[in-house]
Amino acid sequence: AIVLAFIIMSMSYIFSIWAEEVEKASTYECGFDPFEDARNAFDVRFYIIAMIFLIFDLEAIYIFPWCASLCDYDLEGFWIMCDFIIELFMALVYAWK
Predict the structure, then answer these.
(1) pTM for this structure?
(2) Residue 36 has what pLDDT?
(3) I want to staple 52 with a disulfide (CB 3.0 to 4.6 A). Which of 22, 23, 42, 95 is the partner?
(4) Cα–Cα distances in Å, from 65 out to 16, 61, 68, 79, 85?
(5) Would you write out the chain's pLDDT as a tens digit for each of its 97 residues?
(6) DSSP structure string for the chain
(7) Half-sphere exposure for 92 (CA within 13 Å, toward CB)
């Protein structure tokens, strides 16, 4: 298997086309030509929204298994998850404003 992988990688390296095009080497910005320097500062709210997105993705990872096994938990497990959902809602309100 290792020899086969080495042969395949070698063949693709040998037979590939190495001609660089100007378009492929240029900076890509949503289909437009770049209009500013990449080192300019931009709004930090972008990072906040990205972090909130990740938090809500993690929320889905935690809530789905909890819903599937809800009958195995006592009342304390229910209130812990309610607290978790309230904290996530507060994060959403913070990100919304």
Answers:
(1) 0.45
(2) 65
(3) 95
(4) 47, 7, 5, 16, 14
(5) 899 999 999 998 888 777 677 666 666 656 666 666 667 776 777 787 888 888 788 888 888 888 888 777 788 888 888 898 898 888 778 877 7
(6) -HHHHHHHHHHHHHHS-----HHHHS--BTTB---S-TTS---THHHHHHHHHHHHHHHHHHHHHHHHTGGGS-HHHHHHHHHHHHHHHHHHHHHH-
(7) 9
How many CB atoms sit inside 10 A of residue 91's CB?
A: 16
How far is it, in rounded angstroms, from Cα 74 to Cα 64? 17
Q: Which residue matches tokens 């437009």?
A: 32
- ∠ at Cα 47 (43, 52), nearest 5°? 135
Query: Which distant-in-sequence residues (6+ apart) come within 8 Å of 27 by Cβ?
Result: 34, 38
